[in-house]
Each structure stands twice: as C-alpha cells, then as structure tokens.
Amino acid sequence: MTTLDATQKTVLVHEILNQHYGIQEIYARLDPMHELIATVLSHRTTHANEVTAFRRMRERFGSWEAIRDAPVEDLTDAIQTANYPEVKAPYIKQILARIIAERGEANIDFLREMTTDDAMAWLTALPGVGLKTSTLLLLFNFQKPVLPVDTHVHRVTQRLGIIGPKVSAEKAHAILLAYLPQDALVLFNFHKHFYWHGQRVCTWSYPKCHQCVLREYCDYYTERKGPRA
C-alpha cells in the first residue's frame, strides 16, 4: 500500500470518491428552521422515524409558537417515533423559546450574514445543539466552510487511517477540516461521498471490502482483510 501522510491520503481518497460518485451541487433538503429541529430529532434515529416525528409534531401543534408553548408531555408523545423523545422534547421547546425571544420569530436566516465562527458559536450555544447539527445546518443551508462528521464519515475515515482509532467524532470535525480546502463545495462533496460510502460499502458490520474503490489506501483492509479479501 502506498505510504501517504494524512493530508495526502485525505485529498487522494476524496478525489477517488468524487470520480466514483460524481460531484454534487450543494443543496438544502429543508428550510433552516425545519433543518435545525429535524436534525435534533434525527439523533440516533432513522430518517423515516425522524420524518414521521416531525410531521406528527407539526400536524398536532401547527406552528413553532404552539410547539414552544406545548406541554412537554404532549410534545414528547407527538415525537415518540424519534428515539429518546423525552430528551428531545425539552430541547426543542428551549431552542424555540430562545430563538423567538431573541429574534422575535422562529427564523434563523440571519446566520447567513454571520461569520462561520460566529454562526457556529451561536448555534452550539442552543440547548442540545452540538457540532454535528451545527455543521450540517451551516454547510447545507448557508454554504459555510464546515465539515459535518456523522457516524459514517467517522467510521470510513477511521478505517482508512486518516484519523486515529481513538479520535472521537467531535474531534474529527477539526482534524478532517484541516486536511481539506476551506471551500463549501469541496466539503459538501466530502461529507456526502463518505456518508454514502459508509452506508453502501464500508458498513459497520460486514464491510464490502471487495467492492471498495479505496481498499488500496485502507488500513482496515490491509491489516484485517489482507490481499485475499
């Protein structure tokens, strides 16, 4: 296997995945407020259950203000398809209360005009909002140069040996970002391609190493699978 430093390997495998999956234009699946609350709901939850929880919440309460004012027990019941609804319901109420109190409405479009650092600091100060939620929102909705690291991105980059075996997903945000150009389109494609690769090929159990276009550069393949994999 070719010996590369972490930056060289990151750039190279990113280029390979660009060719494999194709360059994607940045898109936002949802408006910013929807994305923020949906991402809180998505933690440790399937996409289908997140969508169901959000839909039931909006159908039951009708507006952000009504969700803010809802009894926590009622909101917990409405989002029960999301894992840990008893934790997420108070966070959602607190997030909405803070945004509406500060901005006068449930709208976070103002983040577009803020610097990346200021926008990140503002978001991570919200109850229950961490790096993953903040980076997803800022990259997808506002095209800020940040890098979301979810479980798939974390697993694939760890198996490749780009980040160490004990590096947490939280720490990986800054480490991986430092290896890449500070360009939103580059970072968006890095996130999407590694996300897809983790979903489809480099799965948590039974990774399909024989199908992997990155195996020549993968520490996991070399050390655990060997040339006969």
From TrEMBL:
SUPFAM superfamilies for the chain: DNA-glycosylase (SSF48150)
Iron-sulfur as UniProt keyword: yes
Gene3D superfamilies: Helix-hairpin-Helix base-excision DNA repair enzymes (C-terminal), Hypothetical protein, domain 2
Residue intervals passing through the bilayer: none
Cofactor(s) named in the record: [4Fe-4S] cluster
GO molecular function: class I DNA-(apurinic or apyrimidinic site) endonuclease activity
InterPro entries xrefs: DNA_glycosylase, Endonuclease3_FeS-loop_motif, HhH-GPD_domain, HhH_base_excis_C
Keyword tags: Endonuclease, Hydrolase, Iron, Iron-sulfur, Lyase, Metal-binding, Nuclease
Record domain HhH-GPD: where: 41-200
Domain of life: Bacteria
EC number: 4.2.99.18
Matching CDD domains: ENDO3c
Claim: Iron-sulfur is one of the keywords in the record: yes
The protein's name in its UniProt record: Endonuclease III domain-containing protein
UniProt source species: Larkinella insperata
Gene: nth
